[in-house]
Write a structure and sequence with these properties.
The protein is mainly α. The chain contains 14 helices and 6 strands. The radius of gyration is 52 Å and the shape is rod-shaped.
Length: about 475
């Protein structure tokens, strides 16, 4: 009695990708294997899109920093980033019925950003004014490119995912933008603020582009890791094979001893032979259970290692993103602080100059009031002198009439007339001097008024009237 040899075969698709042991004489018979727990396909899709977004953003930032930070439309990592973002925004979007066909586009939720974020109205108007865009998908692609150039993509999408009640009108409940993965991607987009993009949206054909993710860009560096993992798996399989062969050898020796005992006791006790057969069947079942447990242990170990590797990659990605974001924010803070200091100094200088101009304006207004008062006083004096002159003339006329009427008092009147003429000449001289001083004051007033007009930014109605009166 001998045991069958052991080999390995691929498990069924429903059992995952596990390798399960199979005996040589089974002829394709199925061997029981523990099935892996089935996951929600939408959750798997969200996880895959999140991982692709992490790899795309990380690769774009690293390549941009090594390339010089300023990117154009032909840069392959930048093109792949837009393709990945388009797939992320399309996940779980609702199909809308139109007049001729079904419409499934991401332009609807992106156009909603204008209502939630007032600064996004300019980018929406720019996209709608582009002449070469004919489809909503082309407008959405142009919107993503303009948002990246403005370094506002993270802000726009953050205000969008916060309003989930409005977002549910465009997305299913299991969509990426409705779950936590959307918030994680928006947080990763903040790191893109450290790079500059110079994209020509107007001349690019965005309507007919086919968004296909090129996985070869992200799998080139994983080839060595895959070879190492395969070598580890092959070594584990060889160790397990040696263990099975040693176990078979031990079992064969045990069976040989049992055969000798059975041959020696076969003549005396038939019942022991039956018990031995039962024991052999139990040994076979235990071997099968042993192999099943080993395969399950191997699957659990592989799954744990994969999870640890994915977690390690995510932590490194998040750490690099945080470092780049922190560096960019520090530079922006230093620039803003230096600009604020320059603006403060400029404002202080302008305020000082303005205070000097205001003080000069007050002094000029005070001088104008004093000159106006002096002019009014001299005008009153001039009016009084003119009245005196009229009175003197009336007296002269009266005296002249009295002179003609009275020849007796001719001498006295002549003397009085002489005195009056002398007084008249003095008054005339004084009037000429007053008129000369009045003309000088008017000249000075006009000069001061012209200076006031030049100093002041704009003339008020009272100043204009005063200058008009003085000029007259």
């Amino acid at each position: 009695m001998t045991f069958q040899g052991w080999g390995w075969r691929r498990g069924e698709p429903s059992q995952g990708s596990a390798w399960v042991p199979v005996a040589e004489g089974e002829r394709g018979a199925a061997v029981p294997c523990t099935t892996l727990a089935t996951k929600d396909p939408t959750a798997v899709e969200r996880a895959n899109l999140l991982n692709m977004a992490k790899l795309s953003i990380k690769g774009l930032i690293e390549s941009a920093l090594s390339f010089g930070r300023t990117l154009d439309s032909d840069y392959p990592p930048l093109q792949q980033f837009f393709v990945v973002m388009e797939h992320c925004l399309k996940h779980g979007i609702k199909v809308r019925k139109s007049f001729l066909s079904y419409n499934k586009t991401i332009w609807g939720p992106l156009e909603l950003v204008e209502k939630l974020y007032p600064e996004a109205e300019e980018i929406g108007a720019s996209v709608r004014d582009l002449p070469g865009l004919k489809t909503p998908l082309g407008r959405a692609r142009a919107w993503l490119r303009l948002a990246l150039m403005q370094k506002k993509m993270a802000d726009y999408l953050r205000c969008l995912i916060i309003q989930r009640d409005l977002l549910s009108e465009f997305y299913e409940y299991h969509a990426l933008m409705m779950e936590e993965e959307g918030a994680v991607i928006v947080g990763l987009l903040v790191g893109l603020n450290v790079i500059d993009a110079n994209l020509c949206v107007k001349g690019e054909d965005l309507d007919s582009q086919v968004g296909v993710i090129d996985f070869s860009m992200y799998l080139k560096n994983e080839e060595d890791i895959g070879n190492k993992e395969r070598n580890v798996q092959i070594a584990a399989i060889l160790d397990q094979k040696n263990y099975v062969e040693e176990l078979n050898r031990q079992l064969n020796s045990t069976v040989s001893s049992l055969h000798s005992r059975v041959d020696s006791l076969e003549k005396s006790n038939t019942k022991l032979i039956e018990e031995l057969a039962i024991a052999k069947n139990n040994i076979i079942k235990l071997q099968e259970e042993n192999h099943q447990l080993r395969s399950e242990n191997k699957l659990i170990l592989m799954k744990t290692q994969q999870h640890l590797e994915v977690t390690k990659v995510d932590m490194e990605t998040e750490l690099q993103t945080y470092k780049h974001s922190r560096q960019g924010l520090d530079e922006m803070y230093n620039d803003a602080r230096r600009q604020l200091r320059d603006e403060s100094q400029l404002r202080q200088d302008v305020e000082n100059e303005l205070s000097v101009q205001v003080s000069m304006k007050h002094e000029i207004e005070l001088a104008m009031k004093l000159l106006e008062k002096d002019i009014h006083e001299k005008q009153d004096t001039l009016i009084g002198l003119r009245q005196q002159l009229e009175e003197v003339k009336a007296i002269n006329i009266e005296m002249y009439q009295k002179l003609q009427g009275s020849e007796d008092g001719l001498k006295e009147k002549n003397e009085i007339i002489a005195r009056l003429e002398e007084k008249t000449s003095k008054i005339t001289t004084a009037m000429k001097q007053l008129e000369q001083s009045d003309s000088d004051l008017l000249t000075q007033t006009r000069v001061i008024a012209m200076s006031l007009v030049k100093c002041a930014g704009s003339d008020t109605q009272d100043q204009y009237k005063l200058v008009k009166d003085i000029s007259f």
